[in-house]
Amino acid sequence: MTPTAALRTRLRKLIDEVIQTGETEADTRFLDSELDDIFDEVDDIWAAAAQAWLEKAGMYQREMGDIEQEGFGQEATRLTALRNRQDYALKMAELYGEKSGSSTGSMIFGATEPDVLGEVDEDSWWDVVEA
Hints:
Helix content is 54%, strand content 6%. The chain is mainly alpha-helical. It has one domain (5-107). Strands 1-2 form a two-stranded antiparallel ribbon. A hairpin with a 2-residue loop joins strand 1 (69-72) and strand 2. The longest helix has 20 residues, at 45-64. It is flat, with a radius of gyration of 21 Å.
């Protein structure tokens, strides 16, 4: 996919990485060049969103560290659990992967074991293996 400013803006919206007024791309998790790299690897905007959410899920550990709750005196701040953030990001990646018509989305999120023997009666499975 050939990246354009409009595609980058759309992708940033889909992955909740919009550049706020007075900020730059450096204030988000992805530089424009990193989004361009994602666009180079996929066939549509949905696959790009799926890949970006997948990468965001991996970024959370570094960003959040191991702290889940902070306390100062009698005040305490409970942070969103790392697992919850990762689960959300992976769910978003799965949803956008399903919308994608590209092989990237289906290969990442829709892989299932092939049925190599076909439907086989449990009592006669050995006959199929020996044949």
